[in-house]
Design brief:
about 230 residues; alpha/beta; Alpha-Beta Plaits; Pectate Lyase C-like; 2 domains; 6-stranded mixed beta sheet; 5-stranded mixed beta sheet; 4 helices; 14 strands; MinC_N; cell cycle; Septum_form_inhib_MinC_C; MinC_C_sf; cell division
Length: about 230
């Protein structure tokens, strides 16, 4: 019997997306440096995708310079993207891959009206319940909501396509709505997180150290901005 030498498997990896909205790269790198200084362990070797707005001035030289600067800050630049309709002659000469900006829908068979019966109900994702502490270096992913009945340690990461409930101290990283659900929320008994994120919008610990730090709190998204409120 032939030995299988490899497997191709899907995986969930937290990717930082840098949205470039202007042309002042000095200011951009300076601002990112401040963010890295606030949470160096989180950003160390973090995969990063550079996403350019349609209106920015983009050249091969600029892209290469930005990528080099980000690598010097210990990011791992995995590629760049922009409106797929904007094409450049210099693209094939770059070592940095361009990724599609389109959100591909999952390929599922289409049912006609005649094929749909009342018995065909769509099953909602089940809630995942964890009753043990999540330790540093561990990662938990839930297809629906995630409920943790213990503490989440620094360096641990919990992700959910729905909301996250932590009935203990949240000291690690919590990412809710990872599939784009902007209605997802994060609830915890004691907010001490390194990072929280909802639908790709994240906030570091230095921005959360308000009146609710080390207290029961919820995090929710309004107009692409994370809000922290007491429970």
């Amino acid at each position: 019997m032939a030995t299988q030498d490899f497997k191709l498997k899907g995986s969930v990896v937290t990717t930082v997306v840098l949205e470039v909205l202007g042309d002042n790269d000095v200011q951009i790198i300076h601002g990112i440096s401040d963010k890295v200084a606030a949470a160096p362990s989180f950003f160390l070797n973090a995969p990063l995708l550079i996403s350019f707005a349609d209106h920015v001035n983009l050249t091969a030289e600029r892209l290469s310079h930005l990528s080099s600067s980000l690598n010097e800050l210990k990011f791992a630049v995995i590629g760049w993207r922009q409106n797929d309709e904007l094409q450049y002659a210099w693209q094939p000469n770059l070592s940095i891959p361009r990724l599609s900006n389109a959100k591909r829908a999952a390929e599922k068979p289409i049912l006609t009206a005649a094929e749909v019966t009342p018995q065909q109900n769509i099953e909602a994702p089940r809630t995942t319940i964890i009753d043990k502490p999540i330790r540093s270096g561990q990662q938990v992913y839930a297809k629906g909501d995630l409920v943790v009945l213990a503490a989440v340690s620094p360096g641990a990461e919990i992700l959910a396509e729905g909301s996250i409930h932590v009935y203990g101290a949240l000291r690690g990283r919590a990412l809710a709505g990872v599939s784009g659900n902007e209605q997802a929320r994060i609830f915890c008994r004691s907010l001490e997180a390194e990072l929280v994120s909802i639908a790709g919008n994240f906030m570091l610990s230095d921005s959360m150290e308000t009146g609710v730090w080390s207290s029961p709190a919820q995090i929710y998204l309004v107009n692409d901005k994370l809000n922290v409120a007491a429970l």
